[in-house]
Every structure is written in structure tokens, then in C-alpha cells.
Design a protein that fits this description.
The chain is α+β, with helices and mostly antiparallel strands and 617 residues long. It has 17 helices and 24 strands.
């Protein structure tokens, strides 16, 4: 039998590696931006077109590469960061596996321009599908520019798996945020389809967070600082009252590298125990500095997961640090019943040692009993003025009272108004309760064949969903004007999402009076929407769109109606009156598809009499 094992050709091996490293355009953005940071760049520009499918370009002013380095950078497992196996556990840089550029070049058209500061001219290399098309000398500024065009051009199957442009753009912006937050000392600029999306100047960590997520974020942040022999923790957590229903603003950085860790996230959650509402998640932006020898980065192809030597100690320190910060800034409640928070020293004045004593001025010559001349009349302080003819006030009251008592005996009361009824024997008709509420979750009703059990939350979702869908489609809806417009603050990315669905929101009854980069102003809301629920609805809508952005075969109108119905539907645990129960049942069976909720879950079940009888056998 002949040999059947053989070595893979280089271009096939590169495409296999690309499957691990490059999952979507955002993966290319991450790898190229991290290479620019390793090159000690102070300004990094990201340019994308068509959500990165047509172009992803990163330009930096870093150290650049020589002619030989530029050519070797596209070879597999070629890196400048590792010399021996021990270096894998002493990493202070980003890209170290030497697979990024080789993998990207295997599935795209790549154009590299680079120049070192000491060289007079630079190098340009053009590669298409791992094949070097040209290498020549060019004039270019110091640094490196890498343009990745037509991603997955030679693997159509992989390209078909990419999502719509809004989805891919969101992933790119997420990666941009992660890299920019980890390095506030570097200026980052991002362009999409020729328009500037972000321009983040060099700043401190707090200012970088505010520049990304909006000015309103500044008042939500609580600083966290702790330094031990195991770890140095710095960063911010969000105040509990600003907690969101989504996990969007949760960032862990270990040695300036973004990571995901459910274990460390649980430490934050336990620190906020008792401070958050159900279903909400705290925001945090925390950077952990640890000894590189105590972590293993190379356990995941995307390097977003890290293995720690002593996770339990790290968990305890992180939890205690966050709790201490919340307590230090009076975020956490205290068990001091005698304490009056109004008497607390303001934070800005806690270091003032010698407060100024207020001056008290007293008029020692004041006499409350001395007589004074007021408008020609002589009066004495505290002297009561009484009317001279007070006896006349009571003259005749006795006789009037007697007459009044006599008059009451002849008073005739009006009989109650009697109205006719359109039904016969109206006095014999009794209203019977046909619905009952079970566990404040289910509405039970009787039908001819047995019993009907309705999930009140899902049923109300279906009713609201079809109602909103009709308003948006017909483009006619009732709107109630607000006496004072509601101003809500969001990040730049979230405002852009609202702008995309603004027209559909207006068809449901919302009215927008102003929109800026990080805030919106609402002057009118749908009749069925209370003013207090506006921010909840929009946050839920943004979350739904971010996690389920409609493709070309999916209706954004449908998603909007689903999101609003989910936010406004009556919740499990809410008590309903008999009238509300009956109205819900009637409205549900007036829908086109009453048996399913908008998320394709069963709204009601029937229990036939036969099945009930079998239970008693």
C-alpha cells in the first residue's frame, strides 16, 4: 500500500492558518493595529470601505521596516518578538506568532509601504494570494502603511459567510474601541467610506473613555486603584444607577491587551451585589498589570483569552478593590442610622484643614417692646389689635339657628335618577368573572372544550407587536407632546443606530427635536408609551439592533416593532385587574397570529376536559 500522508503546500497551509486568524474584516483591523502599536507609533489611522470587505488600511508613523524585514514579514512564523521558547512567557508586545501578515496575504490583495527614519527611500510590496507581484523602491513618509483589499477574493465560500455591512462595521468599531482604550497615549483616527468616525487625541485614560462613549460618561465613572505584589489594578467602574441591560461597556485589559474572562467578570458582579437592579450589568474599564511569567497568552488563536497562574487570588483582589472604591465614594450603602448624608464633607474639601468660621452679626440695640411710628400711627410690637365692636358679630345668630332647624323638617330630597335599560330583566343579570390570574404570570380562562392558559407577557408582546407593525406600515400614529423635551445621552455609535431607524420611530409616534453626536432630544412619544420608559425602550432597541442587525432579507421595521413590544409588554409578576385580563384575552385573539409571540414562543395552551378528567383517575 502506498504512502498516504504528505506535507501540505504552503498556500494551503496559509489558508488554513488564515481560517484561525482572519474570521472577518475586524480580525484584520485588530492584527494590523496591534502591529502598528508594536512599531511604537504615536498616530494610527484606520481607513475602511464597505465594512472592510473592499479595503482595510492602517497607516502609522512607527519605526518602519528595512527592505529585508518588509519581505520577511509575509513569511509564515516570521517575527521580531521571539528568539527562544522562553520568550513566549516574557511577552510585552502584541503580535508574536508571526502568522498575521502571512495569513492575510493568503486571502487578499495586500499592498505594503514602509520606510525607516534612517533610510532615504522606502519599500513597496504588492502580494496577491501569497504570490509576490512586485517589490520596488518608492518615496514614502516614515512608518508603515498596509492596505488589505478584496478580502477572501480567492475563497468565495468564506466571503459568503460574512454578515451585512452594518454588522461587520459594528465588529470593526468594537475592535477599534478595544485597541484605543488599551492605549490612551496614542492618537487614533478612523474613517469609513470617506467620512471621519472617530478622532481620539492623545489623552489620559478617563478622557479616552469620555471621547469614545460620550461626554455624559464622565459623571458615571468611579476610579479604581489598587497595587499589590500580585497585580496592579487601575481604571474605572460605572455607578450602579447607570447600569445598562447590555454588557457593551465591559472591558478587561491585562498588560494593555484586551481579554475576555467570565471568571473575572463574576468578581465584578459580586462586588456590585445588592446595588444593581435585576437584569442590569455594571460598566467597567479595568487594566490589570501582572508579571508576564504568571500568564499564558497563547491558548487561543485570537489571543483574547488568558490563563492565569493564580486566578483565585486575582479574583479576591479584584472584588475587594471594586468594593473598596464603591464604598470610598459613597456608592455602596452604609449601616449607620445616625448618619446624615447632608452633613458629609464634600469630596473636593476633604483635605481642607482650617475651615473658615462664619461670622454672626447681632443688633444689640434692638428692643422688641419699644413703640414705633409707622405711617403716622403709634404701635407697639406684639400688641394684638382687636376690633372695637366685636359684640355685634354674634347678634342674631341664636334666632337664625332656630329657624334653620325648623326649615330642615320640610326639606324634600331629590330621588335618584332612573335610567332605562336596553336589556330586559336588567336587575336579574349578573356579571360573572370569566378570567383568573395565576402566580401573576398566567391568565386562565374557560372555553367550551376546557381551559385556556395564557402567558401574559408573551401575549401582550404579540398584541403590541402587531399594533406597532401596523402603525409603522401605514405611517399613521398618535403622538403625545411632552411639556419638557427629554434629553438622552448615548455614544456616537449608538446615536448613529438611532438615526438609521429614526424614520420608522417617527411612524410609531416618536418625535425628535434635536440630534447631536452624543445626545438626542425627544419632544413627543407614542400615546401608549410613558415618558419614564423612553430611555429603556431606546436602550433595548439599540441592543437588539447591535446583536441582530437585519440583513437584506430581514426587515428593520419588523425588528423595531419586536424591540418596542418587548420593552413595553407587561412583565411577569405584574398583577392585572379582571378588566385588564379580559381585555388582554380579547386583544390576543383579535391578532392575526395569536398562538405565537414575536420571538416565536407559545403564547397560550389549552387543557381539554378529557385531559383534566384523566388527571383524577
Amino acid at each position: 500500500m502506498s504512502d498516504i500522508i504528505q506535507l501540505l503546500p504552503d498556500h494551503v497551509a496559509n489558508q488554513i492558518a488564515a481560517g484561525e486568524v482572519v474570521q472577518r474584516p475586524a480580525s484584520v483591523v485588530k492584527e494590523l493595529m496591534e502591529n502598528a502599536i508594536d512599531a511604537k507609533a504615536s498616530i494610527i489611522k484606520l481607513i475602511i470601505k464597505d465594512a472592510g470587505k473592499t479595503l482595510v488600511q492602517v497607516i502609522d508613523n512607527g519605526s518602519g521596516m528595512s527592505v529585508t524585514d518588509a519581505r520577511l514579514s509575509f513569511e509564515r512564523h516570521a517575527t521580531s518578538k521571539i528568539r527562544t521558547a522562553e520568550d513566549l512567557f516574557l511577552l510585552h508586545t502584541k503580535g508574536f506568532r508571526g502568522e498575521a501578515l502571512a495569513s492575510i496575504a493568503a486571502i487578499a490583495h495586500v499592498e505594503l509601504k514602509t520606510k525607516q527614519e534612517s533610510d532615504e527611500v522606502g519599500t513597496q510590496i504588492v502580494i496577491e494570494g501569497s504570490d509576490v507581484v512586485s517589490q520596488e523602491v518608492i518615496v514614502t513618509p516614515k512608518g508603515t502603511s498596509i492596505a488589505v483589499k478584496n478580502l477572501f477574493f480567492n475563497i468565495p465560500a468564506r466571503r459568503n459567510f460574512l454578515k451585512s455591512n452594518p454588522v461587520e462595521t459594528r465588529h470593526i468599531i468594537d475592535e477599534f474601541h478595544r485597541v484605543a482604550l488599551a492605549h490612551p497615549n496614542i492618537q487614533f483616527v478612523m474613517y469609513h467610506n470617506g467620512g471621519e468616525v472617530f478622532n481620539l487625541p492623545e489623552s489620559n485614560y478617563r478622557q479616552r473613555i469620555v471621547n469614545i462613549f460620550g461626554v455624559k460618561t464622565n459623571e458615571k465613572l468611579v476610579p479604581v486603584n489598587e497595587e499589590t505584589e500580585v497585580v496592579k489594578i487601575s481604571g474605572f467602574v460605572g455607578k450602579p444607577e447607570y447600569a445598562k441591560k447590555t454588557r457593551g461597556e465591559q472591558y478587561f485589559f491585562v498588560n494593555n491587551r484586551f481579554i475576555k474572562s467570565a471568571y473575572l467578570n463574576h468578581a465584578i458582579s459580586s462586588a456590585f451585589d445588592g446595588l444593581l437592579k435585576d437584569g442590569t450589568h455594571a460598566s467597567y474599564f479595568l487594566n490589570l498589570i501582572v508579571n508576564p511569567q504568571t500568564i499564558d497568552i497563547n491558548i487561543h488563536p485570537t489571543k483574547t483569552e488568558i490563563k492565569f497562574d493564580d486566578e483565585h487570588t486575582l479574583y479576591a483582589i479584584l472584588r475587594a478593590s471594586v468594593k473598596h472604591s464603591l464604598g470610598q465614594f459613597n456608592i455602596a450603602p452604609v449601616l449607620d442610622f445616625e448618619r446624615d448624608s447632608n452633613l458629609d464633607t464634600p469630596y473636593n474639601y476633604k483635605d481642607v484643614s482650617n475651615p473658615n468660621t462664619p461670622k454672626i452679626e447681632v443688633d444689640r440695640a434692638y428692643n422688641p417692646f419699644e413703640e414705633k411710628q409707622i405711617l403716622g400711627k403709634q404701635t407697639t410690637a406684639f400688641k394684638r389689635q382687636t376690633p372695637m365692636n366685636w359684640d355685634s358679630l354674634y347678634v342674631g345668630l341664636e334666632s337664625k339657628g332656630t329657624k334653620t332647624q325648623q326649615d330642615f323638617s320640610s326639606v324634600q330630597f331629590e330621588s335618584e335618577e332612573q335610567t332605562g335599560s336596553i336589556f330586559k330583566d336588567d336587575s336579574q343579570v349578573e356579571t360573572k368573572q370569566t378570567t383568573f390570574q395565576l402566580q401573576n404570570k398566567y391568565v386562565v380562562s374557560t372555553i367550551k372544550s376546557g381551559m385556556l392558559v395564557i402567558d401574559q407577557h408573551r401575549a401582550h408582546q404579540r398584541v403590541l407587536y402587531e399594533d406597532f407593525l401596523q402603525h409603522i406600515t401605514v405611517k399613521e400614529s398618535m403622538s403625545q407632546q411632552l411639556l419638557f423635551p427629554v434629553q438622552l445621552h448615548f455614544s456616537t455609535q449608538e446615536v448613529e443606530i438611532i438615526k438609521q431607524v429614526k424614520q420608522d420611530l417617527e411612524h410609531t409616534g416618536f418625535q425628535f427635536s434635536n440630534m447631536s453626536e452624543d445626545s438626542i432630544e425627544i419632544s413627543g412619544v407614542p400615546v401608549s408609551v410613558p415618558e419614564s420608559e423612553v430611555s429603556v425602550i431606546l436602550e433595548q432597541l439599540i441592543n437588539d439592533i447591535q446583536n441582530e442587525v437585519p440583513d437584506s432579507n430581514f426587515s428593520s421595521t419588523d425588528l423595531l416593532a419586536k424591540s418596542m413590544a418587548k420593552s413595553l409588554a407587561i412583565k411577569t409578576g405584574q398583577s392585572l385587574s379582571v378588566m385588564e385580563q379580559e381585555h388582554l384575552v380579547n386583544s390576543l385573539f383579535g391578532c392575526k397570529e395569536p398562538n405565537m409571540s414575536p420571538t416565536n414562543k407559545t403564547t397560550f395552551i389549552t387543557l381539554p376536559v378529557d385531559e383534566l378528567e384523566r388527571k383524577f383517575i
